[in-house]
Design brief:
The complex is a heterodimer of chains A (298) and B (416). With 298 residues, chain A is α/β, with parallel strands linked by helices. Chain A has two domains: 161 residues, Rossmann fold (3-Layer(aba) Sandwich), CATH 3.40.50.300; 80 residues, no CATH class. Chain A is built from ten helices and ten strands. In chain A, the strands form two sheets. Chain A has a six-stranded mixed β-sheet, sandwiched between helices. The longest helix of chain A is centred in the middle third of the chain and has 21 residues. The N and C termini of chain A lie far apart (59 Å). Chain B has 416 residues and is an all-alpha fold. Chain B has a domain of 234 residues. Helix content of chain B is 66%, strand content 3%. Chain B contains 16 helices and six strands. In chain B, strands 1-6 form a two-stranded antiparallel ribbon. In chain B, strands 2-3 form a two-stranded antiparallel ribbon. In chain B, strand 4 and strand 5 form a beta hairpin. In chain B, helix 5 crosses helix 12, helix 6 packs antiparallel against helix 12 and helix 14 packs across helix 16. Classes of the chains: A alpha/beta (298), B mainly alpha (416).
């Protein structure tokens, strides 16, 4: 193993913030030195003007587990993801990840802590090749700035080569190794989804947030994606939090499930248990012929 | 270091890529490699199992081609001052200066998606700083030129709190203010700027070589005046600026910039400090503007405030749209087009229909040029996504592909 993840050169970029993060001198592809950390979401509330998108939601993602966040449309799942990744600010409540409070950080600072995410609607650069899109995932692990990239200093070149090799490795792992030199926009949807997951993996994350990873896929693609997510967990041992509508996939790969409805948590626990929860069944199927549990749901 | 890498951990996964045994295997439904334009819809193909065979043969060919192009362009650019008259040299120098500025604004607008209407301001800062620093402060001219570029960068940096926070077109509107502030200062701060009539520009003096007409210099029986000498300076500056920008675009900052343009939120989530990058690109772009200003001042030999107005900014936007957004080659091609066109029309106005001599009341060559490249912008937007540079690469790719197929077509049937 070489020093593929050694931070070297380029003192220029991101001077102060980096120092809080442990150096990552372990082989690339493993989680950070201190291993996957616990993600504790406590009493997070998000309001947009009068609308309460999340109402005092709490749950905990155990280190190294696959945790699913499910719920009907508009339940607040994506809002929750946006809070976790720093895109939205929580109105109140806190998110702790391995000793750091995420709610006050900006997205790139959250990323610097080793939190990677994918998007419900693919957010890749369509004109860039798969390799370039994945190289963006190395952004937080690389240093080259305007000057060293513009002058093509040896440090920048070496860095690009080293991380390029690692990117190829991850692409191979995600099953997009043959597509490295193809512009992303030319690839089919299912492959683009994989590229997005691969890009998140390129950040060498400790926590992976997957927003509907199998949405819009056919049966075969779903199975492959679910297999990929499982092998990510097995080989990297990182925590994974995923939002998903496909119950088959959720029941297959999740260790724990949190159910949201109208911004509130209505169930939390192992998949089998949650599946039988009357509240969850009501949320998904409606409560016809049954006295409602006092929920003012239309 | 014992941890398993992911590749090692999943040898037997049933992914499509793992399912394709050897790269040389025939893939019947495979489309021709290198689909023409990135904008074409994705063919419904198992793209992952595509072997992409022609890649290897393309590389040496492309390298040879690139070397040949480089050699020819060096030869041409060295030979030009020996054969062309002053008018063409001056036109070429304007084009070079425009190209440097256009590369700068293409980094900002094309690659990062941040509109700027204030580029002319930074050209003015560069040009006037050079004059002020060399004449009034008595700095040696090369030092004054470098300092002028830095001053332009600093003034971009002063604006960068705004440039970092505003997105796309909003920044364009904010930078509009720079033009008016700049024009006001240029016309009114007479001790520094010389007011309406501007100021004369001291010639550059580099290692004892003065970029002026006065100490006579004859090379190979060709009198080398200021334009001939500046030509080489311009070539060197443009080459340096282009190489640097290419490095930035292809390196880590370029990827971050492109992602900010394509998906701002995704860029942030992937660890790119979006505001800092926007500010940084703005500073870099204004330094390119400053350098273009210095060069244009040296060619003009007089700086006048009128030149650095709104229209210049719009010219720069036209350049990058016509040439191709986001690439260095596009900026250069667009700059050549936009700055050569009025000169050509002026030169041949008597032979052209509908174009009158300047001052005779008809459509002047400058106006005609504006109309023409306005039409060119529309045409490019409608028919040439990617601009002139995109057209060139598309043509080049077709050629290369044909060559490749001729040499080592693995399965001509799959060419579709």
């Amino acid at each position: 193993m070489d020093g593929m993840t050694h931070r070297r050169g380029e003192p220029r970029a991101h001077p102060t913030r980096r120092r809080r993060i442990p150096l990552r001198n372990q082989p690339v592809g493993t989680a950070a030195g201190d291993g996957p950390a616990e993600l504790v979401v406590s009493e997070v509330t998000v309001r947009f003007a009068g609308l309460t998108a999340l109402d005092a939601v709490s749950f905990t993602v155990a280190p190294g587990s696959v945790h699913a966040l499910i719920g009907p449309n508009g339940a607040g799942k994506s809002t929750c993801f946006n809070v976790l990744s720093g895109v939205y600010r929580a109105t109140s409540g806190g998110v702790r990840f391995g000793g750091a409070e995420l709610t006050s950080l900006r997205p790139h600072q959250v990323a610097a802590l080793g939190v990677a995410r994918t998007f419900q609607n693919i957010a890749l650069s369509p004109h860039l090749t798969v390799r370039d899109n994945l190289m963006l995932g190395r952004h937080r692990l690389t240093r080259a700035g305007f000057v060293s990239a513009g002058l093509r200093l040896p440090t920048a070149r070496r860095e690009a080569v080293r991380h390029g090799a690692r990117v190829a490795e991850i692409a191979e792992f995600a099953g997009v190794g043959d597509a490295l030199s193809i512009p992303v926009g030319l690839l089919p949807y299912g492959v683009q989804k994989r590229v997005e997951l691969a890009r998140a993996l390129c950040m060498e994350p400790r926590l992976l947030l997957l927003d509907e990873p199998v949405a819009g896929m056919n049966g075969g693609e779903r199975r492959e994606m679910a297999g990929l997510i499982e092998s990510v967990r097995e080989s990297l041992g990182i925590s994974i939090l995923l939002v998903e509508h496909d119950m088959g996939v959720v029941m297959r790969i999740a260790d724990a499930v949190t159910v949201l409805d109208f911004g509130r948590r209505i169930a939390d626990g192992p998949p089998e248990e949650v599946q039988r929860d009357p509240e969850v069944i009501r949320a998904y199927l409606g409560d016809y012929g049954r006295p409602s549990g006092g929920r003012g749901q239309a | 270091m014992s941890e398993p890498t992911p590749t090692a951990a999943t040898p037997g996964r049933d992914s499509p890529a793992a399912g394709t045994p050897e790269p040389g295997a025939p893939a019947p439904s495979t489309p021709a490699p290198s689909t023409p334009a990135p904008s074409t819809p994705a063919p419904s193909t198992p793209a992952l199992s595509t072997p992409w065979p022609a890649r290897g043969t393309a590389r040496p060919l492309r390298a040879v081609l690139r070397l040949a192009v480089l050699a020819v362009s060096v030869m041409v650019s060295v030979a030009v001052p020996f054969y062309l008259e002053g008018f063409w040299l001056q036109t070429g120098l304007f084009a070079m200066s425009a190209a440097i500025g256009a590369i700068g604004i293409n980094l900002l607008t094309g690659a990062t998606g941040q509109l700027s209407l204030g580029h002319a301001f930074f050209l003015a800062v560069g040009a006037y700083s050079y004059v002020f620093l060399s004449t009034d402060l008595g700095l040696p001219t090369p030092l004054a030129a470098v300092a002028a570029v830095i001053v332009a960068g600093v003034s971009g940096g002063l604006f960068s709190p705004i440039a970092g926070r505003l997105r796309g077109a909003y920044l364009g509107i904010a930078t509009l203010a720079l033009i008016f502030v700049g024009q006001h200062i240029l016309f009114n701060a007479e001790p520094v700027t010389g007011g309406f009539n501007g100021r004369p520009v001291p010639p550059m003096e580099l290692f004892g070589l003065v970029f002026a007409d006065t100490p006579e210099l004859v090379v190979l029986n060709v009198p080398f005046g200021s334009l001939e000498r500046l030509w080489f300076l311009g070539i060197a500056l443009l080459a340096g600026a282009a190489v640097f920008a290419r490095g930035v675009l292809r390196g880590r900052p370029g990827l971050a910039m492109n992602t900010i343009r394509d998906h701002e939120i995704a860029a942030g989530v992937m660890g790119v400090p979006v505001a800092r990058y926007r500010a940084g690109v703005f500073v870099l772009s204004s330094m390119y503007g400053g350098l273009a200003g210095v060069l244009v001042a040296l060619v003009f030999q007089q700086v006048v405030p009128d030149y650095f107005g709104m229209l210049l900014s719009l010219d720069y936007l036209a350049m990058i749209v016509i040439g191709g957004l986001g690439s260095v080659a596009g900026a250069v091609a667009g700059a050549a087009f936009v700055s050569l066109l009025p000169q050509l029309l002026t030169r041949y106005s008597d032979a052209l229909p509908l174009v009158a001599e300047p001052g005779s009341g008809g459509v002047s060559p400058a106006e005609a040029a504006r109309i023409l490249y306005g039409a060119a912008v529309v045409a490019v937007v409608l028919f040439l996504p990617g601009g002139l540079a995109g057209l060139a690469t598309r043509l080049g790719r077709v050629r290369l592909k044909e060559l490749r197929w001729a040499k080592s077509a693995p399965a001509p049937a799959s060419r579709r």
